[in-house]
Model the fold of this input.
Amino acid sequence: MRTLITASSVALIATTAAALPPTTAISGYGFVKDGTPRNYVAVEFASGVLPQDVQAFVEPLGGCLAIPQDGGDNFAAALSLLLIDSANPEHNTAWVGVVHLPAADGELHWQTVGGDDASYLPFSKGLPANSPSMPLGAVLHAHSQEWFDAPIGNGTSQVRRAVIAFPEGLEDCDQDQIPDVLVFALELAEDANGDGTLDWCAPIGDLNLDAIVNAADLSLLLAAWNTPNADLDGDGMTGASDLSLLLAAWSN
Done:
């Protein structure tokens, strides 16, 4: 049975509010498989989330809940999760993009969030722990790299983390393996000048955030002399060293 799993699958899955809880931690891990660069992003939220809600959130951004195809993929997903600085690392678990929806035959039918049969299923021995009569999601444990099943049909969840996959080629101005589009969507950064680039990726010396370093920035630096307002080198004061940095970054 092929069924697309989205937040609108209300016939079988109760969904939460469209907005996800605030993000409390995020990490990205890049790797190469079969010559193609790939990356997984692990996100931790302030409270429990459901996989269908995460999928609905990231799909318009070009992402998808991670669907490991083999042990190497699964290791990469687990590693992205381990990179999160968690206060409870022993509970470092996250949703991946594999789910089960009840069928008339009463059997388990694990499939991807896109509706394809899931062939790689590294579930812990003895699982699933829950009945095939209820919708289930797959949860990856970062340390054991095993999967567990968890109910996803009652509108609540204790799982606060998810591993998301993104295709190559998305803008990542600071090269942290977290696409800028996700950073903006999770409201983790600002774009004060509306140029579509994370403000922290602006060239050093670009004080007015117009993506170039020129006379306008020089004027701002000189106006801030002997104050912390245009401190580029982090010494707490605007002075000659900051002027040198600005001039070195001057746009052609």
